[in-house]
Structure formats: C-alpha cells, structure tokens
Amino acid sequence: MPDVQLSRRALLLGALALALALALGNRLLRNTGSAYEAPAPVAAAKPATPAEVVVDVVGAVRRAGLYRLPQGSRIADAVTRAGGATRKADLALVNLAAPVSDGTQIVVPVRAPAVAGGGSEPSAPAGPVHLNTATLEDLDALPGVGPVTAQKILDYRQQHGAFASVDELDAIPGIGPKRLDQLRDLVAP
Hints:
By secondary structure, the protein is of the alpha/beta class. Among the domains are: 49-112, Ubiquitin-like (UB roll); 127-189, DNA polymerase, domain 1 (Orthogonal Bundle). The protein has five helices and five strands. Mean pLDDT is 79; it is low at 119-124.
C-alpha cells in the first residue's frame, strides 16, 4: 500500500465534513423519526350521549310547551316535566305508561263538566279522540271503527310508536281514504 500523506488542511476538512454529515443525518432521523416512534395512545371514545326526544305537552298541564326527554321516557315523565296535571285534567283519558316518540304532541284533556239531570241520550265526545292515548273502547266508539279495527290501531301504535299525524291511519288495514276522511275531524294524534 502506498503511503498517502495528507496535509493538515485536508484532514481538518475531512473531519469537518464527517462531523457535518453526522449532524445532518442525526437531524434528519429526528425529523422523520415518526416511523420509529411508538404510536401515540388512542384517546378513549367519549361515551355517546343518550338520545333525546322532543315532545309538545299541551292541555291541562301547569306549563305547556316543548320538552326534551331521554329516549325511552313515558307520557307520565312528559306530564311531570310540564309541571304536572292541573286539577281540571282528566288523566283517566291519558295512557301515562305509553312511551313517547320524538316529535309527538301529548294532550292532557280537561275533564268534561258534569251534566245535571239524568238524560238518557249518550253525550257526544268532548273533543277529538287522541290516537296516542285512546283505549280500545274510545276507538271502537268512532263511526265505522269496530273492535277489530280498533285493535289494529292499538297494535299499529304499539309496533310503530306514537302517531305523528292522522294520515298514518291510512296504513291500517280496514281504513281507506274514505274512512280516513270521516275520521279526520274526530281524531287527533
């Protein structure tokens, strides 16, 4: 091997170049070193907020209005949220155990005044029959609705939730457009 003699200047420049290359390489590895770093821990997912429903409570309640309730609430919860029923309320006409659906109106009817005298004529209903709270007997009393169709209405309400409009009655077998027109002024959601 031949003896290579390098000058001091060449050695200093070589050492400086080597140091510069090492520093630059180290810096590059730090900036692009994310491939070598352990992955950041995944933040735990926030628990989903419980779904809410919005209902409109009207009638014989202390504070009628729109109320947000947790999913799965009952009509009793909505009436309580509206300040409770007034003394004039007829809660026997309201199914307090029925579940509420988003966007429904809950009507707490006023008790019908007592009629003096024992008239034998049947009295007309004080107001519309509310599809979301009506009993089998209430629905059976409607013209053209017998006990079978009344049960179909109750079954539909149980399967699909509260009625949002009277037009939903069209989905019930036995109630066509003609019957729906007859019932439109006699029922309410």
